[in-house]
TrEMBL record:
<comment type="function">
    <text>Catalyzes the reduction of dTDP-6-deoxy-L-lyxo-4-hexulose to yield dTDP-L-rhamnose.</text>
</comment>
<comment type="similarity">
    <text>Belongs to the dTDP-4-dehydrorhamnose reductase family.</text>
</comment>
<dbReference type="InterPro" id="IPR036291">
    <property type="entry name" value="NAD(P)-bd_dom_sf"/>
</dbReference>
<feature type="domain" description="RmlD-like substrate binding">
    <location>
        <begin position="1"/>
        <end position="291"/>
    </location>
</feature>
<dbReference type="Pfam" id="PF04321">
    <property type="entry name" value="RmlD_sub_bind"/>
</dbReference>
<dbReference type="GO" id="GO:0008831">
    <property type="term" value="F:dTDP-4-dehydrorhamnose reductase activity"/>
</dbReference>
<comment type="pathway">
    <text>Carbohydrate biosynthesis; dTDP-L-rhamnose biosynthesis.</text>
</comment>
<keyword id="KW-0521">NADP</keyword>
<dbReference type="InterPro" id="IPR029903">
    <property type="entry name" value="RmlD-like-bd"/>
</dbReference>
<protein>
    <recommendedName>
        <fullName>dTDP-4-dehydrorhamnose reductase</fullName>
        <ecNumber>1.1.1.133</ecNumber>
    </recommendedName>
</protein>
<dbReference type="InterPro" id="IPR005913">
    <property type="entry name" value="dTDP_dehydrorham_reduct"/>
</dbReference>
<keyword id="KW-0560">Oxidoreductase</keyword>
<dbReference type="GO" id="GO:0019305">
    <property type="term" value="P:dTDP-rhamnose biosynthetic process"/>
</dbReference>
Length: 299
Protein backbone atom coordinates (compact mmCIF):
# COMPACT_ATOMS: atom_id res chain seq x y z
CA UNK A 1 0.00 0.00 0.00
CA UNK A 2 1.41 3.35 -1.07
CA UNK A 3 0.59 6.30 1.17
CA UNK A 4 1.26 9.96 0.55
CA UNK A 5 1.40 12.37 3.50
CA UNK A 6 1.37 16.13 2.97
CA UNK A 7 4.09 18.21 4.62
CA UNK A 8 7.64 16.89 4.99
CA UNK A 9 8.73 18.57 8.21
CA UNK A 10 5.44 18.49 10.15
CA UNK A 11 5.27 16.57 13.44
CA UNK A 12 2.70 14.04 12.24
CA UNK A 13 4.37 13.63 8.84
CA UNK A 14 7.78 12.99 10.37
CA UNK A 15 6.39 10.49 12.87
CA UNK A 16 4.50 8.69 10.09
CA UNK A 17 7.64 8.40 7.99
CA UNK A 18 9.52 7.02 10.99
CA UNK A 19 6.84 4.54 12.13
CA UNK A 20 6.01 3.29 8.62
CA UNK A 21 9.46 1.70 8.42
CA UNK A 22 8.28 -1.17 10.63
CA UNK A 23 5.20 -1.81 8.43
CA UNK A 24 6.52 -3.93 5.58
CA UNK A 25 3.38 -3.65 3.46
CA UNK A 26 3.34 0.15 3.62
CA UNK A 27 5.37 2.53 1.51
CA UNK A 28 5.17 6.10 2.75
CA UNK A 29 6.03 9.20 0.75
CA UNK A 30 6.04 12.71 2.24
CA UNK A 31 5.28 15.54 -0.19
CA UNK A 32 5.82 19.18 0.74
CA UNK A 33 6.78 22.56 -0.57
CA UNK A 34 7.74 23.47 -3.22
CA UNK A 35 6.46 20.35 -5.11
CA UNK A 36 3.19 20.37 -3.16
CA UNK A 37 2.12 23.81 -1.93
CA UNK A 38 -1.34 23.95 -0.36
CA UNK A 39 -1.61 27.60 -1.34
CA UNK A 40 -1.20 26.58 -5.01
CA UNK A 41 -3.94 23.99 -5.66
CA UNK A 42 -2.57 22.88 -9.03
CA UNK A 43 0.70 21.78 -7.41
CA UNK A 44 -1.36 19.67 -5.00
CA UNK A 45 -3.26 17.89 -7.74
CA UNK A 46 -0.14 17.36 -9.89
CA UNK A 47 2.09 16.13 -7.04
CA UNK A 48 -0.50 13.68 -5.70
CA UNK A 49 -1.39 12.36 -9.15
CA UNK A 50 2.30 11.80 -9.95
CA UNK A 51 2.79 9.77 -6.75
CA UNK A 52 -0.12 7.40 -7.54
CA UNK A 53 -1.01 6.69 -3.90
CA UNK A 54 -3.54 4.18 -2.54
CA UNK A 55 -4.40 6.62 0.25
CA UNK A 56 -3.61 10.25 1.13
CA UNK A 57 -2.93 11.55 4.63
CA UNK A 58 -3.61 15.27 4.75
CA UNK A 59 -1.42 16.48 7.64
CA UNK A 60 0.08 19.75 6.39
CA UNK A 61 -1.59 22.89 7.69
CA UNK A 62 -1.11 26.45 8.81
CA UNK A 63 -0.74 25.81 12.58
CA UNK A 64 0.44 29.18 13.95
CA UNK A 65 -2.70 29.89 16.00
CA UNK A 66 -1.95 33.50 17.01
CA UNK A 67 -0.38 34.51 13.70
CA UNK A 68 -3.51 33.28 11.89
CA UNK A 69 -5.47 36.12 13.53
CA UNK A 70 -3.30 38.58 11.61
CA UNK A 71 -3.34 36.78 8.25
CA UNK A 72 -6.71 35.02 7.99
CA UNK A 73 -6.56 34.82 4.20
CA UNK A 74 -3.26 32.96 4.26
CA UNK A 75 -4.62 30.55 6.89
CA UNK A 76 -7.78 30.05 4.83
CA UNK A 77 -5.90 29.40 1.60
CA UNK A 78 -3.91 26.64 3.31
CA UNK A 79 -6.34 25.14 5.85
CA UNK A 80 -9.57 25.40 3.87
CA UNK A 81 -8.78 25.68 0.15
CA UNK A 82 -5.57 23.65 0.42
CA UNK A 83 -7.32 20.88 2.35
CA UNK A 84 -10.06 20.82 -0.31
CA UNK A 85 -7.43 20.48 -3.04
CA UNK A 86 -5.87 17.47 -1.27
CA UNK A 87 -9.24 15.74 -0.83
CA UNK A 88 -10.13 16.52 -4.45
CA UNK A 89 -6.85 15.10 -5.73
CA UNK A 90 -7.50 11.91 -3.73
CA UNK A 91 -11.06 11.72 -5.11
CA UNK A 92 -9.75 12.08 -8.66
CA UNK A 93 -7.46 9.10 -8.00
CA UNK A 94 -10.40 7.28 -6.44
CA UNK A 95 -8.59 6.82 -3.11
CA UNK A 96 -9.55 7.74 0.48
CA UNK A 97 -8.25 10.79 2.31
CA UNK A 98 -7.38 10.91 6.04
CA UNK A 99 -7.53 14.56 7.01
CA UNK A 100 -6.24 15.90 10.32
CA UNK A 101 -8.27 18.50 12.15
CA UNK A 102 -8.35 20.07 15.59
CA UNK A 103 -10.09 20.44 18.94
CA UNK A 104 -10.07 24.22 18.25
CA UNK A 105 -13.19 23.75 16.06
CA UNK A 106 -15.11 23.74 19.38
CA UNK A 107 -16.05 26.76 21.48
CA UNK A 108 -14.97 25.21 24.78
CA UNK A 109 -18.12 25.56 26.82
CA UNK A 110 -18.97 23.03 29.53
CA UNK A 111 -16.61 20.47 30.98
CA UNK A 112 -17.62 17.24 29.25
CA UNK A 113 -15.58 15.66 26.45
CA UNK A 114 -16.95 16.62 23.03
CA UNK A 115 -18.40 13.94 20.77
CA UNK A 116 -18.20 14.00 16.99
CA UNK A 117 -21.79 15.19 16.64
CA UNK A 118 -21.54 18.06 19.10
CA UNK A 119 -21.98 21.55 17.69
CA UNK A 120 -18.81 23.29 16.60
CA UNK A 121 -18.12 26.97 17.26
CA UNK A 122 -14.52 27.98 16.69
CA UNK A 123 -13.20 30.97 18.63
CA UNK A 124 -10.14 31.57 16.46
CA UNK A 125 -9.25 32.08 12.79
CA UNK A 126 -7.20 28.88 12.91
CA UNK A 127 -10.19 26.93 14.29
CA UNK A 128 -12.58 28.45 11.75
CA UNK A 129 -10.28 27.73 8.79
CA UNK A 130 -9.78 24.14 9.99
CA UNK A 131 -13.56 23.72 10.34
CA UNK A 132 -14.08 25.06 6.83
CA UNK A 133 -11.40 22.61 5.72
CA UNK A 134 -13.38 19.73 7.26
CA UNK A 135 -16.51 20.75 5.38
CA UNK A 136 -14.61 21.10 2.11
CA UNK A 137 -12.85 17.74 2.52
CA UNK A 138 -16.15 15.97 3.21
CA UNK A 139 -17.73 17.61 0.15
CA UNK A 140 -14.81 16.80 -2.14
CA UNK A 141 -14.31 13.14 -1.26
CA UNK A 142 -16.98 10.83 0.17
CA UNK A 143 -14.24 8.42 1.21
CA UNK A 144 -12.87 10.72 3.93
CA UNK A 145 -11.80 10.21 7.50
CA UNK A 146 -11.54 13.49 9.37
CA UNK A 147 -9.43 12.88 12.46
CA UNK A 148 -9.71 15.64 15.05
CA UNK A 149 -6.70 15.60 17.32
CA UNK A 150 -5.32 18.05 19.90
CA UNK A 151 -2.32 19.41 21.81
CA UNK A 152 0.15 17.56 19.58
CA UNK A 153 3.76 17.12 20.70
CA UNK A 154 6.69 15.04 19.47
CA UNK A 155 10.47 15.06 19.19
CA UNK A 156 10.02 17.08 15.97
CA UNK A 157 9.15 20.64 15.04
CA UNK A 158 7.63 23.17 17.42
CA UNK A 159 5.45 22.06 20.30
CA UNK A 160 4.59 22.74 23.94
CA UNK A 161 6.92 20.04 25.34
CA UNK A 162 9.94 21.45 23.54
CA UNK A 163 8.95 25.01 24.48
CA UNK A 164 8.70 24.08 28.18
CA UNK A 165 12.09 22.29 28.18
CA UNK A 166 13.66 25.27 26.45
CA UNK A 167 12.16 27.78 28.91
CA UNK A 168 13.38 25.69 31.86
CA UNK A 169 16.95 26.09 30.67
CA UNK A 170 16.85 29.79 31.51
CA UNK A 171 14.13 30.14 34.16
CA UNK A 172 13.36 28.79 37.64
CA UNK A 173 9.62 29.38 37.27
CA UNK A 174 7.33 29.17 34.27
CA UNK A 175 3.78 30.60 34.45
CA UNK A 176 1.26 28.42 32.62
CA UNK A 177 -2.49 28.65 32.21
CA UNK A 178 -4.47 26.24 34.40
CA UNK A 179 -7.98 26.91 33.06
CA UNK A 180 -7.75 25.37 29.58
CA UNK A 181 -8.44 21.64 29.56
CA UNK A 182 -7.73 19.10 26.83
CA UNK A 183 -5.93 15.95 25.74
CA UNK A 184 -2.17 16.05 25.10
CA UNK A 185 -1.45 13.79 22.12
CA UNK A 186 1.87 12.37 20.98
CA UNK A 187 2.34 12.57 17.21
CA UNK A 188 4.01 9.15 17.46
CA UNK A 189 0.74 7.73 18.81
CA UNK A 190 -1.20 9.53 16.04
CA UNK A 191 1.13 7.95 13.47
CA UNK A 192 0.59 4.47 14.92
CA UNK A 193 -3.19 4.96 14.89
CA UNK A 194 -3.10 6.21 11.28
CA UNK A 195 -1.05 3.20 10.20
CA UNK A 196 -3.61 0.96 11.93
CA UNK A 197 -6.38 2.73 9.99
CA UNK A 198 -4.45 2.22 6.75
CA UNK A 199 -4.15 -1.49 7.46
CA UNK A 200 -7.87 -1.66 8.28
CA UNK A 201 -8.80 0.07 5.02
CA UNK A 202 -6.33 -2.05 3.07
CA UNK A 203 -7.81 -5.27 4.44
CA UNK A 204 -11.44 -4.21 4.08
CA UNK A 205 -12.17 -2.90 0.58
CA UNK A 206 -15.84 -2.52 1.59
CA UNK A 207 -15.01 -0.26 4.58
CA UNK A 208 -18.08 1.89 5.06
CA UNK A 209 -17.45 3.85 8.26
CA UNK A 210 -16.09 6.99 6.66
CA UNK A 211 -16.73 10.24 8.52
CA UNK A 212 -15.40 12.27 11.45
CA UNK A 213 -13.52 10.83 14.44
CA UNK A 214 -11.83 12.18 17.55
CA UNK A 215 -8.32 10.83 18.04
CA UNK A 216 -6.44 12.10 21.11
CA UNK A 217 -4.26 10.74 23.91
CA UNK A 218 -6.14 8.96 26.72
CA UNK A 219 -6.84 11.06 29.81
CA UNK A 220 -7.16 14.80 30.05
CA UNK A 221 -5.39 17.62 31.83
CA UNK A 222 -4.75 21.36 31.71
CA UNK A 223 -1.68 23.08 30.31
CA UNK A 224 -0.05 23.78 33.69
CA UNK A 225 -0.39 20.16 34.85
CA UNK A 226 0.93 19.08 31.47
CA UNK A 227 3.93 21.36 32.02
CA UNK A 228 4.47 19.84 35.48
CA UNK A 229 4.44 16.32 34.03
CA UNK A 230 7.01 17.41 31.43
CA UNK A 231 9.34 18.78 34.12
CA UNK A 232 8.89 15.71 36.36
CA UNK A 233 9.88 13.46 33.47
CA UNK A 234 12.82 15.70 32.64
CA UNK A 235 13.96 15.92 36.28
CA UNK A 236 14.07 12.10 36.58
CA UNK A 237 16.46 12.11 33.63
CA UNK A 238 18.49 15.04 35.00
CA UNK A 239 17.19 17.32 32.27
CA UNK A 240 16.01 20.94 32.66
CA UNK A 241 13.09 21.59 34.99
CA UNK A 242 11.28 24.55 36.52
CA UNK A 243 8.56 25.33 39.02
CA UNK A 244 5.17 25.79 37.36
CA UNK A 245 3.02 28.70 38.49
CA UNK A 246 -0.69 28.26 37.76
CA UNK A 247 -2.17 31.34 36.11
CA UNK A 248 -5.58 32.10 34.61
CA UNK A 249 -5.83 32.70 30.87
CA UNK A 250 -6.43 36.40 31.61
CA UNK A 251 -2.81 36.61 32.79
CA UNK A 252 -1.49 35.14 29.54
CA UNK A 253 -2.97 37.36 26.84
CA UNK A 254 -2.72 36.05 23.30
CA UNK A 255 -4.03 37.18 19.90
CA UNK A 256 -6.26 34.12 19.49
CA UNK A 257 -8.92 32.93 21.92
CA UNK A 258 -8.50 29.27 22.87
CA UNK A 259 -11.29 26.98 24.11
CA UNK A 260 -11.26 26.46 27.88
CA UNK A 261 -12.58 22.93 27.47
CA UNK A 262 -11.53 21.04 24.37
CA UNK A 263 -11.54 17.52 25.78
CA UNK A 264 -12.53 15.07 23.04
CA UNK A 265 -14.20 11.68 23.46
CA UNK A 266 -12.48 8.86 21.57
CA UNK A 267 -15.27 6.33 22.11
CA UNK A 268 -16.32 6.27 18.46
CA UNK A 269 -12.77 5.71 17.24
CA UNK A 270 -12.20 2.92 19.76
CA UNK A 271 -15.42 1.18 18.74
CA UNK A 272 -14.95 1.33 14.98
CA UNK A 273 -11.18 0.77 14.76
CA UNK A 274 -10.61 -1.35 17.90
CA UNK A 275 -7.73 0.91 18.89
CA UNK A 276 -7.09 2.76 22.14
CA UNK A 277 -4.59 5.58 22.40
CA UNK A 278 -1.96 5.38 25.20
CA UNK A 279 -2.33 7.48 28.37
CA UNK A 280 -0.89 10.96 27.77
CA UNK A 281 1.49 10.67 30.77
CA UNK A 282 3.20 7.56 29.37
CA UNK A 283 3.68 9.16 25.98
CA UNK A 284 4.89 12.41 27.53
CA UNK A 285 7.58 10.48 29.45
CA UNK A 286 8.73 8.77 26.24
CA UNK A 287 8.87 11.95 24.18
CA UNK A 288 10.69 13.92 26.90
CA UNK A 289 13.22 11.08 27.18
CA UNK A 290 13.83 11.15 23.46
CA UNK A 291 14.12 14.94 23.23
CA UNK A 292 16.72 14.92 26.01
CA UNK A 293 18.63 12.00 24.47
CA UNK A 294 18.70 13.67 21.07
CA UNK A 295 19.76 17.01 22.50
CA UNK A 296 22.69 15.24 24.24
CA UNK A 297 23.57 13.55 20.97
CA UNK A 298 23.60 17.03 19.41
CA UNK A 299 20.81 16.28 16.95
N1 LIG B 1 0.15 20.85 16.36
C1 LIG B 1 -0.97 20.67 17.08
O1 LIG B 1 -0.99 20.89 18.29
C2 LIG B 1 -2.20 20.17 16.43
C3 LIG B 1 -2.29 19.93 15.08
N2 LIG B 1 -3.47 19.52 14.51
C4 LIG B 1 -3.55 19.30 13.07
O2 LIG B 1 -2.78 18.15 12.79
C5 LIG B 1 -2.10 18.30 11.54
C6 LIG B 1 -0.63 18.04 11.74
O3 LIG B 1 -0.12 18.99 12.66
P1 LIG B 1 1.45 19.07 12.97
O4 LIG B 1 2.12 17.86 12.43
O5 LIG B 1 1.60 19.45 14.38
O6 LIG B 1 1.84 20.32 12.07
P2 LIG B 1 3.19 21.13 12.04
O7 LIG B 1 2.91 22.53 12.40
O8 LIG B 1 4.27 20.38 12.76
O9 LIG B 1 3.56 21.03 10.50
C7 LIG B 1 2.75 21.60 9.54
C8 LIG B 1 3.28 21.21 8.18
O10 LIG B 1 2.47 21.84 7.20
C9 LIG B 1 3.32 22.32 6.21
N3 LIG B 1 2.74 23.42 5.49
C10 LIG B 1 2.38 24.64 5.94
N4 LIG B 1 1.94 25.39 4.92
C11 LIG B 1 2.03 24.63 3.80
C12 LIG B 1 1.76 24.84 2.44
N5 LIG B 1 1.31 26.01 1.98
N6 LIG B 1 1.97 23.83 1.57
C13 LIG B 1 2.47 22.66 1.99
N7 LIG B 1 2.76 22.40 3.26
C14 LIG B 1 2.55 23.38 4.15
C15 LIG B 1 4.58 22.75 6.93
O11 LIG B 1 5.60 22.80 6.02
P3 LIG B 1 7.03 23.50 6.34
O12 LIG B 1 7.76 22.49 7.14
O13 LIG B 1 7.58 23.71 4.97
O14 LIG B 1 6.71 24.78 7.06
C16 LIG B 1 4.71 21.63 7.93
O15 LIG B 1 5.42 20.57 7.35
C17 LIG B 1 -2.50 19.69 11.03
O16 LIG B 1 -3.56 19.55 10.15
C18 LIG B 1 -2.96 20.43 12.26
O17 LIG B 1 -3.93 21.41 11.95
C19 LIG B 1 -4.58 19.29 15.24
C20 LIG B 1 -4.57 19.49 16.59
C21 LIG B 1 -3.36 19.91 17.30
C1 LIG C 1 4.58 29.00 26.15
C2 LIG C 1 3.45 29.18 27.13
C3 LIG C 1 2.15 28.91 26.75
N1 LIG C 1 1.14 29.09 27.63
C4 LIG C 1 -0.24 28.76 27.22
C5 LIG C 1 -0.73 29.36 25.93
C6 LIG C 1 -1.76 28.35 25.49
O1 LIG C 1 -2.98 28.64 26.14
C7 LIG C 1 -1.20 27.04 26.01
C8 LIG C 1 -0.50 26.19 24.96
O2 LIG C 1 0.43 26.96 24.22
P1 LIG C 1 0.70 26.66 22.69
O3 LIG C 1 1.45 27.78 22.10
O4 LIG C 1 1.24 25.29 22.53
O5 LIG C 1 -0.81 26.70 22.17
P2 LIG C 1 -1.42 26.51 20.75
O6 LIG C 1 -0.42 26.84 19.72
O7 LIG C 1 -2.70 27.20 20.77
O8 LIG C 1 -1.68 24.93 20.65
C9 LIG C 1 -2.66 24.52 19.73
O9 LIG C 1 -2.06 24.36 18.46
C10 LIG C 1 -2.99 24.09 17.44
C11 LIG C 1 -2.22 23.88 16.14
C12 LIG C 1 -3.98 23.05 17.77
O10 LIG C 1 -4.62 22.48 16.87
C13 LIG C 1 -4.39 22.85 19.20
O11 LIG C 1 -4.82 21.52 19.46
C14 LIG C 1 -3.30 23.23 20.18
O12 LIG C 1 -2.29 22.24 20.28
O13 LIG C 1 -0.28 27.36 27.03
C15 LIG C 1 1.37 29.53 28.92
O14 LIG C 1 0.42 29.67 29.73
N2 LIG C 1 2.66 29.79 29.32
C16 LIG C 1 3.70 29.65 28.47
O15 LIG C 1 4.88 29.92 28.86
MG1 LIG D 1 1.70 26.95 18.90
Amino acid sequence: MKIVVTGCEGQVARCLVERAVSHRAIELIALGRPELDLALPQTVVDAIAAAKPDLVVSAAAYTAVDQAEDEPEVARSINSLGAAAVACAAAQMNVPVLHLSTDYVFSGEGDEPYGEHDATGPRSVYGQTKLDGETAVAAANPRHLILRTAWVYSPFGKNFVKTMLRLAESRDTVSVVCDQWGNPTSAIDIADAILHICETLGADRQFADFGTYHLVGSGSTNWSSFARAIFEASKRLRGPCAEVKDIPTSEYPTRAIRPSNSRLSTQKFEGVFGWKMPQWQQSTDKVVERILAESHAGK
